[in-house]
Write a structure and sequence with these properties.
- By secondary structure, the chain is mainly beta.
- The protein contains no helices and 6 strands.
- Strands 1-2-3-5-6 form a 5-stranded mixed barrel.
- The protein is globular and about 30 Å long.
- It starts with a strand and ends in a 5-residue tail after the last strand.
């Protein structure tokens, strides 16, 4: 079984910065595949990157610790 880590994805149309903790599978380096959480509400939240997207992440320090933040989708050739 592949282990998962938590990646934070920005929610859009919230009126302020809101970040959703999302389970993700690490692929290589700073690339992760976002998984669909059991409580995913589809219409209730608009994610910057939807479930099953491959995203590039940065580790940022906030809320007192280092966390992975989804910042971009990979470029395609």
């Amino acid at each position: 079984m592949t282990s998962t880590t938590t990646v934070f994805v920005r929610l859009l149309a919230e009126g302020l910065d809101v970040w959703r903790p999302v389970p993700a599978q690490r692929l290589d380096g700073d690339y992760f595949r976002l998984l669909k959480p059991d409580d995913f509400g589809g219409d209730a939240e608009i994610w910057e990157f939807p479930p099953h997207s491959v995203v590039r992440c940065e580790q940022l320090f906030f809320e007192g610790e280092s966390k992975w933040i989804a910042i971009a989708t990979p470029l395609t050739p």
